[in-house]
Specification:
Layout (H helix, E strand, L loop, with lengths): L8 H9 L43 E7 L4 E4 L5 E14 L5 E13 H8 L6 E15 L2 E15 L23
Parallel strand pairs: 4-6
Antiparallel strand pairs: 1-3, 1-5, 2-3, 3-4, 5-6
Length: 181
């Protein structure tokens, strides 16, 4: 839609170049580049607190599932505390016989500092959303080198619904004496 008072495309283009009017849209000062003419720069934050970084890779993991066991607090050799919890995710599909099949994946989640303290309050079976990055590390056990994949958590959200109090509002030790008449 043209601004009021502009009748032709030439008038519209001249008004667009006028600095007193503000247009919100693509600028036509430079011709559009074809594919491969200039490298594409993505502005994706690598970490949550980073703004406007020019990074062309992303390692972000978002999982929704249920915790499989009680969280466990461990310590590094330097004495730093961290919390380990397991998270189960499930995928379901119909096979060729029109029957449902499912597969459960278990994920090892590592939470540090205050997030680790929060993770310690979670219980087995809690419905969680975990966001973080995928990390791998190697260790040696019984002379055999092993590689393990973990999620270093940035955010953990508890998705469980709040348990409602007794519908009668009389407390836990109240007894039902039948209808009140």
């Amino acid at each position: 839609m043209r601004p009021p008072g502009l009748r032709s495309p030439k008038q519209f283009q001249n008004a667009r170049n006028n600095s007193s009017l503000k247009f919100f849209g693509p600028s036509r000062k430079k011709p559009p580049l074809g594919l491969g003419a200039e490298p594409t720069q993505l502005r994706v934050p690598r970490y949550t607190g980073q703004k406007g970084s020019k990074v062309m890779y992303q390692n972000r993991l978002s999982l929704i599932g249920f915790s499989g066991k009680e969280p466990e607090q461990k310590f590094t050799k330097n004495g730093a505390a961290f919390t380990v919890l397991s998270l189960a995710t499930k995928t379901s599909w119909k096979n060729d016989n029109d029957e449902w099949e499912s597969r459960t994946e278990w994920h090892r989640i590592i939470a540090w500092s205050k997030l680790g303290e929060f993770a310690l309050t979670l219980t087995k079976g809690a419905h969680l959303q975990v966001e973080g990055e995928l990390r791998s590390r190697e260790y040696e056990k019984d002379g055999v080198k092993r590689r393990i994949w973990e999620c270093k958590a940035y955010r953990i959200a508890k998705l469980d619904r709040i348990e409602r109090a007794d519908d009668t509002g009389r407390g836990e030790d109240a007894t039902d004496d039948g209808p009140p008449f």
